Amino acid sequence: MRRVPEMDRRPALAALLALSLFLLPGLSCTPAARPNPDPQPTPLHQRLSEYGLFQKAERGVLQPVSTAVAYDLNTPLFSDYALKYRTLHIPAGAQMQYADDTIFAMPVGTIITKTFSFPADFRRPQERVRRIETRLLIRQPTGWVAVPYVWNADQSDATQAAGGLTTPIDFIDADGNKVHFNYSVPSRNQCGSCHQIYEGRRQIIVPIGVRARNINRDFAYAEGVENTLQRLKRLQLLVGLPWFGIPAASNYADESQPVAERARDYLDANCAHCHRDNAAAGLNSKLILSHSENDASRLGLCKTPGSAGKGGGGLTYDIVPGHPELSILHYRMATDQPGAMMPQLGRALVHREAVALIARWIQAMPERNCP
Description:
Layout: H1 10-23, E1 54-56, E2 63-64, E3 69-71, E4 83-89, E5 96-97, E6 111-119, E7 129-140, E8 143-151, E9 158-160, E10 165-172, E11 178-185, H2 188-195, E12 196-199, E13 202-205, H3 212-215, E14 218-221, E15 224-227, H4 228-234, E16 238-239, H5 259-270, H6 280-285, H7 328-334, H8 352-363
Helix pairs in contact: 5-8
């Protein structure tokens, strides 16, 4: 009887190994992102309309050009209850590179926009909306630059405000209360202070929000609801997106999610851009508020502040487990006093809902006697 030779299993094993690598979270067989084929500096125009980022500027929500992608964040940065509209503009022929827990690598010529608006009455947020400012982050060949633009009275265009601006705001909040305060448009230098990190001895500006865990969510686009990351991949603007295992932050206001998870994600979105190892507040205070921080002391539990000064309200520890009323973190979020409130830039009002969330989080911690 003739012996049938064994099949060579090596090609099949190689194919199986390649498939398993492809399916592992965080890995992808896609090529590296394409850089901008024409990486020239973007001129910093005096008028927002000169960039060609929006099709029209009617009252209410702006309409971006067809090549832009609008997006939102699972838990956004608080800015005096302002409504925000964000868009991402990737140069033609270029792509972003996916990363699990850092800002995506974006090509030269990328422009990120964020428009801040206030309705006259938050019980009817789509009516009588006044746009205040649009901030741009522009990826130049030498790095990112931040430029603020202030909208004119008839809402037809916005003009560069490199030195910032203060303007009075009046609205009725969601509970029917009248609110009046002075809203501050940051200067270019102030924009940089929130986006600034250290690379060795060098200070650079980086985006904050364009991370997988922040934008891994559905968005209502004109043609229907779609996950933003999947949309970026479908439009071939993002490479390296895993098949599964993509992180997603919680929505701080979603009561169905655990309090601790929501509190940590709120602090990550609102505080950790400064309170991290390679940014000013983290380096000075040693208080690290990134969602991934697992060291209880670095997170503030029974930790004395490194640089609170008079802003500590006479309290001793950043967080006293079980006692928000004794915790500097809670105090600085709950006050609107200059020099004491946190963050020091970007707000004049207290985010009441977030303060309540942080209080619940601290109260739920097992009590311990801080030394």
